[in-house]
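[09:14] KT: can someone run the structure on this one? pasting the chain below
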Amino acid sequence: MLTDTHCHLSVFERENRLDATLQAAVDAGVTRMVTIGTDQQDWDLYRRIAARFPGRVWHTAGLHPCDVEEDWEEQLALLPSCFGERPAPVALGEIGLDYFHLPKHPDEAAEIRSRQVKAFRRQLELAYQFDCPVVIHSRNAFADCVSMIDKSGVDWRKVVFHCFSEGGAEMAELVKRGGFGSFTGILTYKKAGNIREAIRCQGLDRLMLETDCPFLTPEPVRGKPNEPAFLRHTADYAATFFGVSLEELARITSANAARFYGLG
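[09:31] RB: done, structure tokens below
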């Protein structure tokens, strides 16, 4: 039984096909998933989805760096209340820094980058306060993300860099701090040698898998919109990579996810 530790189920709910999508996942052996909040628009939606599917879907709440707009302070003022509701989020995230999608104009880029840093710092303060797991989005900003987490006091054992797309050297920095990386369908791509180096560095005993759906569809279904059922393809690849059975890989990765997120 596989666990998709990072997916975005809002698209399936809004297209009235969430039930069918979750059934397809179960049919593929993906029986648990964590749907990841990115802004105020989906925090309550994901709480309601988690309430509808107890024991199958859990949720998080956070403000994604690409969603840090001028009203970011107002949004973050509402975030703590999410952790007082039931079911409560199992993590704060996804949060972090994204320098890849900055505007081309230097002044605009500097303004948005500064806004992202402030929002990330504030959310790390909340994570420290709540002592909860943290889901990190890092795009072209690994060193800055690591530095800010170091300074925040957040327990690195509760930190996962989702969709890990750096190499072995960067993974070594996470491992020595006690943090984690989780891996998407990019692992299956031919030109993803750096990611295979990273997954080898982290090792099977610390591995978590995700789809990040509806993005990053794995081979051999690349080109289609991604969904939780397609985690099976990434898992098949990872099992072959580590030379273990799919059942063993599923057991280890799901146990890691359960411990990290407190899924019970």
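[09:33] KT: thanks! Strands lie at 2-7, 30-35, 57-59, 92-98, 134-139, 159-161, 180-183, 208-209.
[09:34] RB: yep, looked fine to me
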